[in-house]
Amino acid sequence: MAVVQDVHGHHDHHPSGIMRWVTTTNHKDIGTMYLWFSFAMFLVGGFLAMGIRAELFMPGIQILEPELFNSFTTLHGLIMVFGAIMPAFVGLANWQVPLMIGAPDMAFARMNNWSFWLLPVAGMLLVSSFFVPGGAAAGGWTFYPPLSAQGGMGVDMMIFAVHILGASSIMGAINIITTILNMRAPGMTLMKMPMFVWTWLITAYLLVLVMPVLAGTVTMLLTDRHFGTSFFNAAGGGDPVLFQHIFWFFGHPEVYIMILPAFGIVSEIIPTFSRKPLFGYSSMVYATASIAILSCIVWAHHMFTVGMPTVGQLFFMYATMLIAVPTGVKVFNWTATMWRGSMTFETPMLFAIGFIFLFVIGGFSGVICAIVPIDIQVQDTYYVIAHFHYVLVSGALFAIFGAVYYWLPKWCGRMYDVKLANMHFWLSMIFFNVAFFVQHFLGLAGMPRRIPDYSLQFADFNMISSIGAFGFGLTQLFFLYIVIKCIRGGEKAADRPWEGGNTLEWTLPSPAPYHTFETPPVIK
Amino acid sequence: MNNTEQPAEKASAMQVAKAVFWSFLGIRKKDDLDRDAKMIKPHQVVIGGLIGGVIFVLSILTLVKVVTS
Ligand code: HEM
Ligand SMILES: [Cu+2]
């Protein structure tokens, strides 16, 4: 991509110290804050996961009382989904979308500041709910009534947190859509946009579509709890199954919200390190769009065991299996991009290839869950836990790691310690599989999810899984060390540290100056 | 590619339908795509996509009805 650009030094007058961060409207500052916030929440969620795996290390109840155990699983899910994965992607969008489309900043810079600063409030609400009377919400991250109708004040704090997080996501999404549609550099037509920008554009539309649905559900839950309505209360003429339908109408698109930006990241990394353009760029755009549309009509595959007419079961089964087609096309495209490329295996590439490998496993176990007669057996077992950790940890999270290793040199102007980074990859890869592969077997053997204790025949696999999980957890502290070491010092990174990187951000100096593309580059 | 070429002609309904159909599969030939990108307006794709979605749902429903009858 030929680019004419103009980057000049600037005298900035912005507050320093803490006020810089409180008042900032700079997309790079806000992106950085998003990423640090998400990492902090990742550690909190990880701490809860370690608690869960410690309790499940052996049969019997050792360290967590059942009620507290349930709070741990509930808050682990909520914090990882809404606190770690989603903000990490928004942080990446904040940093990268303007840089990749040649825009000076996000379209609504002040709203951007607000959407970030809502997050710590929600995070604090979730964490502090552990310490209120009755403890944190314990009805699962899906907070089905009647359990969520019963809990104490912790449930209300969770509802409030979800409201705030939803508002933040909607504002973030509006910002991203407007930026992409209105602020592209001259010559950057839609079909020239980098794949990461495309996937985020489509994700942002999904967010605007389904976050209000989530807000609506939790509001109905709130009025059921406190204002005498009976939306989900059978005793008052309501229906708890209604909740599940509304929740999953949000929930399934939500899982795609967490994977589409990951697809975008992988679609940037693979071509760079294969030194070839992305195979089938246009099909990728099309496939992403159709995945987004189809993801809205498959929600009841989470509800096969609730009881549903055969016609409904078959409908959702067929629809779910069909959605795997465009997903498969993507995997095919990535593989074809690597085919006969001159590949090198820098850390981002390792994570991208690890992603493809393990995401395919997760995709297949998803299709298996979609088959009604099988799902009736595995629903609410560890098989489902294994499925969604393969798509969320080795899918979304690995892509985020890959993205950080890909763009960190651009962000802080220094190269990280490649040996350590590669070690981070291999340790994550090994421990992840030790922790989660065996959960397939546990699930098939019938071990239910969300229980603090289990029968003896599950003991061995659980111990293996816990060991893997502890290893995975420790490895992520290692990641923190690598990033801090890189920020503190290290070899200076070139402006274009990856010779195959062809998108606009690599035309900028490293580290990227505080203000970039104030005069838009011209894309020929 | 430059954008100052001939004043883009409008896409026919058939062309939009084809683009939408292929997008559901996730595949599109490069030439066809370039033509699509030039001729089809965004709102046409959105409307086409929604109609395509409805047709998709109805055809699965029909299939299910046939299978269960
Ligand atoms: C090939 C595509 C996929 C298919 C066919 C699929 C199918 C399914 C099915 C049928 C279930 C319900 C299992 C049950 O509860 O019995 C499920 C659960 C789940 N899936 Fe997927 N899935 C796919 C991809 C993904 C992706 C990409 C993500 C996230 C990035 C994801 C995240 C989840 C989560 C979080 C759950 C469990 C929700 C819960 O009950 O807590 N799935 N999937
Ligand atoms: Cu789903």
TrEMBL record, chain A:
GO terms for cellular component: plasma membrane; respiratory chain complex IV. GO terms for biological process: electron transport coupled proton transport; oxidative phosphorylation; respiratory electron transport chain. The chain crosses the membrane at residues 34-54, 74-95, 116-138, 158-183, 195-222, 242-266, 278-300, 306-329, 350-374, 386-408, 420-442, 462-484. Residues 21-524 form the Cytochrome oxidase subunit I profile domain. Its main location: membrane. Its EC number is 7.1.1.9. InterPro entries: Cyt_c_oxase-like_su1_dom, Cyt_c_oxase-like_su1_sf, Cyt_C_Oxase_1, Cyt_c_Oxase_su1_BS, Cyt_c_oxase_su1_dom, Cyt_c_oxidase_su1_bac. It comes from the Bacteria. One of its GO terms (molecular function) is cytochrome-c oxidase activity. It is an enzyme of class 7 (translocase). It catalyses: 4 Fe(II)-[cytochrome c] + O2 + 8 H(+)(in) = 4 Fe(III)-[cytochrome c] + 2 H2O + 4 H(+)(out). It is a multi-pass membrane protein. Pathway: Energy metabolism; oxidative phosphorylation. Keywords: Cell membrane, Copper, Electron transport, Heme, Iron, Membrane, Metal-binding, Respiratory chain, Translocase, Transmembrane, Transmembrane helix, Transport. It is found in: Cell membrane; Membrane. PANTHER family: CYTOCHROME C OXIDASE SUBUNIT 1 (PTHR10422:SF18). Belongs to the heme-copper respiratory oxidase family. NCBIfam families: CtaD_CoxA (TIGR02891). Cytochrome c oxidase is the component of the respiratory chain that catalyzes the reduction of oxygen to water. Subunits 1-3 form the functional core of the enzyme complex. CO I is the catalytic subunit of the enzyme. Electrons originating in cytochrome c are transferred via the copper A center of subunit 2 and heme A of subunit 1 to the bimetallic center formed by heme A3 and copper B. This is Cytochrome c oxidase subunit 1.
From TrEMBL, chain B:
Pfam families: DUF2970 (PF11174). The chain crosses the membrane at residues 45-64. Keywords: Membrane, Transmembrane, Transmembrane helix. The keyword Transmembrane helix applies. This is DUF2970 family protein. The lineage of its organism: Bacteria, Pseudomonadati, Pseudomonadota, Betaproteobacteria, Nitrosomonadales.
